[in-house]
Structures are given as C-alpha cells and as structure tokens.
C-alpha cells in the first residue's frame, strides 16, 4: 500500500532524540503490540519514589499528610534502580539500603522573609548503589526543583523520607514518563475515527500535514476504501519525568513486556510453583536479552479482518495510572 | 514518631500485579462442548496482555477463534478463549504467539537502539554547529 524504503522488517525512525524526549516512528509494526508497549511504558516500568515518611517536625501550615503526598510526587533519579530490591522482596524489616533510599528534608525559617522549601533540599542520607540514584530531578533554570512547602518565621519542617522501588500500576508517582504520545493513521484512511461535524468534517477538523506526509500522504479520492487494511506505522512521543532517560523508558518497556510474555511461556510449559519469579513486574531487572534466537517457524502474519470482543473497546480506555495525575502534580513548577 | 504513607487511599494496589499465595499466572481449562477449544485465565494481568494475545492469535491461520474478556473490572484477571482448527492445540497456539511477539520486540529494540544513537549523534552535532556559528559572530 505505502512506499516502504526499509523493506518489510520492523524498524524505527527518529524525529527527535534528546535528554527529555524520544519522538519516533515504528514502521511495519502491528497495533496490538504497539499498544501493549505503550501501556507497559506507562504503567509497568520500575522507578524510585518516596513511599514512607517519618514526620519528625512539621509546624508549617500544611498538614502532615498533605506534605507527605507532595513528597511522594517529587521525581527522583531512577538511575540504576534495577540494583535495588522491591521492599516486599527484601529480607529486612521495613526498609534497608538494599531496598530503599533515605532522604531527609530539614528546614527552619528564621528570617522575616517567607522561606520556600524545594525539591533540591532533599538530602540523601543512605548508602546508594550509585551517585545518581535517589537524587531529586532538577530541570528548571533556577535549579530548585518543585516547591514543596513555604515556611514563615519560626516554622520548621523535618522529615525522613523512605524512597522505594515501584511501578505506576501501584501509584502514578512511579510513572517514568510525563506523557506518551501515540498515534497511527493521521489521515484517517482506515476510518477508525468517525469525526463529528456540523457540515463538513474536511473543513472543520485541523490536519497535521507534516505527519500525514510521514504516513504515505493524504488519501487518494479515486482509490476504493480498503476495508481490510491495518495500521503498520505508529508515532510515539515519549517524554520523561526525568528519572529515566527517554530511550531507557522505551527499552525498559520492551524488556518488561518480553519478560511478561516469557512468564506466560514459562507458566504454560508446566513450570509449576515458581511462576511468580516471572510475574513481569517483579523481575524487570532481567533484561529481555536472549529471546531473539527463537525459531520463527516460517509463520507469516495474515492481515485479515480481526473480529472478537474486547478488541477496539480497550484501546483508549484504561491506561491505569497514566493520564489523570500529571496535570495535578507540581513537576517543574514553582508556585 | 509519626510515620506516614506518602499516599493514603488504597493500600493494597499491589494486588493488581502480584500473584496471591499459590496462585498460577495462567490456568487452562478445556472447553468440553467444543473441540480444540480452551479458556485460559490469566491472573494479575490486564488489557496490556489480553488484547495483545487475542489480536495476535487471530493472525495465526490455525486459530479459528480468539478473544479475551475482563470478567470484572475490580479483579485483576482476564480470560482468553482460543479455538484452533486442530492442527495445533490452543496452548501451543498461545505459546507460539508469545514467542513471535518476543521476537518482534527484540527486532524493535535492535532498530530502536541503533536509530537512537544515530539521532543523538546528529542532534549533538547540530547543537555544536550552532554554537560554533554563534561564536563566529
Ligand atoms: Zn530491605
């Protein structure tokens, strides 16, 4: 259907690649795997976030719970989280250096000016596997990070924060990405969208010409509608919160999904008892290496009409923990 | 000393992805009334895997029916029903599908890494070039 310079194999083409964003196109791919990868990147990549807080002192105007919640949402560097155990898998009682990073936030306002306590004021107190892990992510020009609380003269805050490894399925504070753009068929040639309109959707809806040109150009009006055509080109825009670089989010997403599938294989091939070793979320440290060699078995995908329930309804729906919390979080903002 | 969880609503959300004591990841139940048909119950999984497997199974010519459902939104489980033409068992079909997707992801990963490095080098070169031109003025 479309001109394909790379041949028929799965390939990636980058539009933008920097420390914040990976904007790329995957070609010759399929919708179900593309979407599974999107969902995995949103919800199942392990990162580090503050999970338990010991409030030693808090005379600020904000309630303990309020400040603790804000602390949980502060993005921390997740460089090398794979070296950290999940606290629930650790032998220790509560937390230790093998399964957590301890940070303290200690500030007291003595002057007449209002004092702002920022993410940068979080200090790592425990021994960490590397120098980066657990550092608050600072991306703003002032180098402060987000403001956690304001103090007036005589007010103080002193908190011991235990940061643990987790995934966004449990709480959105563990989400590695601030947003993941995902799109296919920008010209709507496949008619997966049914545009609402007053008189003429062609006139009333904006078009992303640049993107349509990256996807084989606008539809040819003389061409008959191909009812059995399927999308093969997917536009991703992965933006990191700052804890993991964007390329690592994608690679980890791929690895976590592979481990998940390997877990299914293991469970089905009669691996009884220790199926939980492969429960996907628990062992993302095991990278997806070594699967590539498996026999393809001469199987060719057939692009037939795909029926069955549970199909289309589940796409946009339930990216758990994915969307809602971002707008409300103070990432990179100063009040 | 007062200890606070950094989040307060639901304390048991790990139940979404951690298997219960003694629970299996996948349970297969053969459909006795229909030939070559099984219903697989996946525990602690959701649409991410359900949709992926169901849709991918449909591309296997030996598979006559494949679909999944989440019986209840509050329970982290889904059921995958698979019927084959008899040349392979439903279990073999599911396993083959898993292998194929793993391979696809490996190919994607390879291409992604190569292209990422290439694009990074180009972008950094671009930044340097701009800085040089900037200094010339
Ligand atoms: Zn521990």
From TrEMBL, chain A:
Top-level taxon in the UniProt lineage: Eukaryota
Location(s), subcellular: Nucleus
Predominant localisation class: nucleus
Sorted UniProt keywords: DNA-directed RNA polymerase, Nucleus, Transcription
Start and end residues of each DNA-directed RNA polymerase RpoA/D/Rpb3-type domain: 21-267
Molecular-function annotations in GO: DNA-directed RNA polymerase activity; protein dimerization activity
Keyword hit for Nucleus: yes
Gene Ontology biological process: transcription by RNA polymerase II
GO CC annotations, alphabetized: RNA polymerase II, core complex
Xref: HAMAP family: RNApol_arch_Rpo3 (MF_00320)
Homology family: Belongs to the archaeal Rpo3/eukaryotic RPB3 RNA polymerase subunit family.
Subunit structure of this chain's protein: Component of the RNA polymerase II (Pol II) complex consisting of 12 subunits.
Protein name in UniProt: DNA-directed RNA polymerase II subunit RPB3
Organism: Decorospora gaudefroyi
Origin organism lineage: Eukaryota, Fungi, Dikarya, Ascomycota, Pezizomycotina
Automatic annotation (TrEMBL), chain B:
One Gene Ontology cellular component: RNA polymerase II, core complex
CDD domains reported for this sequence: RNAP_II_RPB11
Primary location class: nucleus
Keywords assigned: DNA-directed RNA polymerase, Nucleus, Transcription
GO biological process: transcription by RNA polymerase II
Domain (DNA-directed RNA polymerase RBP11-like dimerisation): residue spans on this chain: 38-110
HAMAP family reported for this sequence: RNApol_arch_Rpo11
Protein family (similarity comment): Belongs to the archaeal Rpo11/eukaryotic RPB11/RPC19 RNA polymerase subunit family.
Protein name as annotated: RBP11-like subunits of RNA polymerase
Organism: Decorospora gaudefroyi
Lineage of the species this protein comes from: Eukaryota, Fungi, Dikarya, Ascomycota, Pezizomycotina
């Amino acid at each position: 259907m479309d001109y394909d310079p790379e041949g028929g194999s799965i390939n990636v083409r980058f539009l933008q690649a920097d420390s914040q964003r990976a904007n790329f196109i995957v070609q010759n791919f399929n919708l179900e795997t593309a979407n599974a990868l999107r969902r995995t990147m949103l919800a199942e990549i392990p990162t580090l976030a503050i999970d338990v807080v010991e409030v030693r002192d808090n005379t600020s105007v904000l309630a303990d719970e309020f400040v603790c919640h804000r602390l949980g949402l502060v993005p921390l560097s997740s460089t090398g989280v794979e070296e950290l155990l999940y606290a629930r898998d650790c032998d220790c009682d509560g937390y230790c250096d093998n399964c957590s990073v301890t940070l303290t936030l200690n500030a007291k306002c003595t002057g007449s000016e209002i004092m702002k306590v920022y993410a940068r004021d979080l200090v790592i107190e425990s021994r960490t596997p590397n120098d980066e892990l657990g550092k608050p992510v600072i991306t703003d020009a002032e180098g402060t990070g987000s403001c956690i609380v304001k103090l007036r003269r005589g007010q103080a805050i002193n908190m011991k924060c235990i940061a643990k490894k987790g995934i966004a399925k449990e709480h959105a504070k563990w989400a590695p990405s601030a947003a993941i753009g995902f799109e296919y068929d920008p010209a709507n040639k496949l008619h997966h969208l049914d545009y609402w309109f007053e008189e003429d959707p062609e006139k009333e809806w904006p078009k992303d010409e640049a993107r349509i040109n990256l996807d084989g150009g606008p539809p040819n009006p003389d061409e008959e509608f191909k009812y059995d055509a399927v999308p093969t080109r997917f536009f991703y825009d992965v933006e990191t919160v700052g804890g993991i670089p964007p390329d690592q989010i994608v690679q980890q997403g791929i690895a976590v999904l592979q481990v998940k599938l390997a877990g299914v294989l293991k469970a089905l091939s009669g691996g009884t008892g220790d199926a939980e070793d492969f429960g996907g979320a628990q062992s993302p440290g095991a990278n997806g290496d070594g699967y590539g060699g498996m026999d393809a078995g001469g199987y060719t995908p057939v692009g037939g009409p795909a029926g069955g329930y549970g199909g289309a309804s589940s796409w946009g729906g339930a990216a758990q923990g994915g969307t809602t919390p971002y707008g409300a979080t103070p990432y990179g903002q100063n009040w | 000393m007062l200890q606070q969880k950094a989040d307060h609503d639901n304390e048991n959300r790990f139940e979404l992805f951690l298997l219960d004591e003694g629970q299996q990841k996948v349970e297969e139940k053969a459909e006795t009334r229909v030939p070559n048909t099984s219903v697989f119950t996946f525990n602690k999984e959701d649409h991410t895997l359900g949709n992926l497997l169901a849709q991918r199974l449909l591309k296997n010519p030996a598979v006559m029916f494949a679909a999944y459902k989440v019986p209840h939104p509050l329970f982290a489980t889904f059921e995958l029903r698979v019927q084959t033409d008899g040349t392979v068992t439903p279990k073999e079909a599911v396993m083959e599908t898993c292998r194929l997707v793993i391979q696809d992801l490996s190919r994607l990963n390879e291409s992604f890494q190569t292209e990422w490095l290439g694009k990074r080098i180009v972008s950094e070169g671009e930044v340097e070039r701009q800085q040089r031109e900037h200094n010339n003025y």
